[in-house]
Amino acid sequence: MNKEKSSFEKLGVNLPAILLPRKGTDMPKWSVVACDQYTSEPEYWNEVERNVGDSPSTLKLTFPEVYLENGKSEERIEQINSSMEKYLKENILETHGSCFIYVDRKTSHTPSRKGLVMAVDLEKYDYAPGSQTLIRATEGTVVERLPPRIKIRENASLELPHVMLLIDDPEKSVIEPLAAKTDSLEKVYDFDLMMKGGHIRGYKVDDEETVGNILSALEKLAAPERFSNKYSVGKDKGVLLFAVGDGNHSLASAKGHWEIIKCELSAEELENHPARYALVEVVNVHDAGLTFEPIHRVVFNVNADDLLSSMAEFLKNENCSYRKINSMESIVYELQALRANKGTHAMGFCTKEGFGIIEILNPSHNLEVGTLQCFLDDYLKNHPEVKVDYIHGEDVVLKLGTQKDNIGFFLPKMSKHDLFKTVILDGVLPRKTFSMGEADEKRYYLECRKIVK
């Protein structure tokens, strides 16, 4: 038992006390997609609200970002806190004790994506560039985005995860062995997710042998010598065990909340306070059901010609140019040819007037997303009326980018197998570089955990 406790501490993981809806709850209405999805599609969230109605739902425990700027934030946060207390008081949520949850998710794009819900130690997580902690961000964190999110957590009695962490486990030693044990594990949920989210099954993992096997496999991944050999790095590089794949700003907000409250805790409370930990789902980057998709950009309320000429000027030392073409099919064809030259960056765009290609012959960034985001960040500073959103799916880029006063940018995908080594060697990627699957494949809120004493 002491060895197991030591392993938990060393790995920065924890067996969380899981809360799930009591039997008889309408689970498809309970579980809704991550709050940072469909932020430019209010019609999606209107449909979710109609589906949920008065039923118990995680919609009432979370803050969809589509509503962040409607002027009713304080009221919504109060309603969230009130709903949490109500669900606890009325026993809508029931405890399943301390356990991991093995998750098997089917989507419209993959028959199976496997995950493991656990809690991670926020003391072993740092989103700062150059961090060498066990748990690390993979993309830049916008610190200005954290205060409103920390405020949501400030008086919350519960947390619900949409954070997904990745492990680099080519031998499939941590999560995948659980697939052969489902007959001996207690199934705690099995239902269709709303809004084309697919199907999800969850199994309780709490027996000592299975938990011990998971810890042992994680310890092998985190062994310093093995880590050094695997990535061909020196001992100056700290072990990266968990890379944040989705929900970095949510995890950073949990960290911010913990940093605030821990100042007033005793030494004993520091060790055991539930807010020290955050609930996450861990996924193997080598899972066949996990795909990396590009996150495109749509810029709103902008003169597209001014933006394009400003981009060419901003990147003139990198030999940037653009030209207009006649169709989306031409974009696809030309980008394939241009990207064969690995030293060139190329991306497509669409506006109400038509389509085009942007080329950067001598880029200073490693990825197209870095080149584009560097320009957009500068452009938005001088054009406060202009807004940008981060979009999953080319169809949505087409829909929004071809509307009046908008422009959409199409970006390429990065290989998921390059992620860990890139983050270890180069640090965090530009924000919104990749998406783990499409929008409807994102984590749905389901499990809960108390974060107050």
- Span between N and C termini? 24 Å
**Strand content range:** 15-25%
Q: What's the tally of helices?
A: 14
List low-confidence stretches.
Answer: none
How many domains make up the 3D coordinates?
2
Summarize the main sheet.
10 strands, mixed
Question: How many beta-strand elements?
Answer: 22
Please state the structural category.
Answer: alpha+beta
- Helical proportion? 25-40%
Q: Can you put this structure into words, describing what you see?
A:
The protein is α+β, with helices and mostly antiparallel strands. The chain folds into 2 domains: 2-292 and 437-450, no CATH class; 296-410, no CATH class. It is built from 14 helices and 22 strands. The chain has helices at 2-11, 27-30, 42-52, 73-89, 146-154, 208-221, 224-231, 248-261, 267-272, 304-314, 328-338, 368-382, 394-401, 419-426; strands at 13-14, 17-21, 93-98, 100-106, 113-121, 125-126, 135-137, 158-159, 164-167, 186-193, 198-205, 242-246, 277-284, 292-294, 296-300, 320-325, 345-351, 354-360, 387-391, 407-410, 434-436, 449-450. The strands form 5 sheets. Strands 1, 4, 5, 6, 7, 9, 10, 11, 12 and 13 form a 10-stranded mixed β-sheet that branches. A 6-stranded antiparallel β-sheet has the order 16-18-17-20-15-19, sandwiched between helices. A two-stranded antiparallel ribbon has the order 2-3. Strand 10 and strand 11 (198-205) form a beta hairpin. Helix 1 (2-11) crosses helix 6 and helix 5 packs across helix 8. The chain starts with a helix and ends with a strand. The relative contact order is 0.18. The model has no long low-confidence stretch (mean pLDDT 95).
